[in-house]
Specification:
mainly alpha; rod-shaped; single chain; Methane Monooxygenase Hydroxylase, Chain G, domain 1
């Protein structure tokens, strides 16, 4: 195998590794291997692990991609519902009531006005605050909201919370697979360079002697 420039693709890496192993383990005893026994052993051990790293990464990427569309769809639904609920809560409960209810409602409404819905964590935290706040407000004698209905908001929130937890796991799995494959790529490039260097250092006299045997 002649020396050259590494191509930054996994297909090239795998082909180069398998070519080096085939060239280093020829059946004909008259043929001189251009790859050292140590590198051959390294190739035999590494190629299966490199294939596995590729397979795990591709599977994790496919899984992430398949779930991403549903995640964005449910995220859009719950963001719209929460924003509608915040607007409703902020403007609809200003009627005067006596005692503790007034204090609770005032505190709840003021907290809601400060809520942000930007990140996924915002959605989870704000949604929880809204749902718990609306539940307590109704228990204190407040009128249940009709538009949006809190039950519908809760369904959308629960759907997003479930897919959010699933996406966290999926992203972590993909990130771990990506790191492992990145490490494998570095080792693959190192092995390929070793095989190229060894190919260039096989003594020509040894090749001639074997050929004339």
């Amino acid at each position: 195998m002649s020396t050259g420039q590494l191509t930054n693709t996994d297909t090239f890496r795998l082909n180069a590794l398998e070519d080096a192993l085939r060239n280093g383990t020829k059946d004909n005893p008259l043929e001189v291997s251009a790859v050292s026994p140590r590198t051959i052993q390294r190739l035999k051990y590494f190629i299966p692990s490199f294939k596995q790293a590729l397979s795990v990464y591709n599977e994790a990427l496919l899984n992430h991609t398949c779930k991403e569309d549903n995640y964005h769809f449910l995220r859009g639904n719950v963001v719209a519902a929460l924003r509608q609920l915040i607007a409703k809560v902020s403007t609809s409960h200003k009627e005067e009531v006596s005692g503790m209810t007034t204090k609770k409602q005032f505190s709840y409404i003021e907290n809601i006005k400060k809520c942000a819905i930007e990140s996924d964590e915002d959605i989870i935290n704000t949604g929880k605050l809204l749902l718990e706040g609306e539940h307590m407000r109704v228990l204190d004698g407040g009128e249940p909201l009709q538009e949006p209905r809190i039950a519908i908001v809760k369904i959308k929130y629960d759907q997003f919370a479930e897919v959010y937890r699933a996406m966290q796991f999926t992203r972590q799995t993909l990130e771990r697979a990506k790191i492992k494959l990145s490490e494998a790529r570095i080792e693959a490039d190192d092995i390929i360079m070793c095989t190229w260097k060894e190919s260039d250092t096989v003594p020509q006299a040894e090749l001639a002697n074997k050929a004339n045997f």
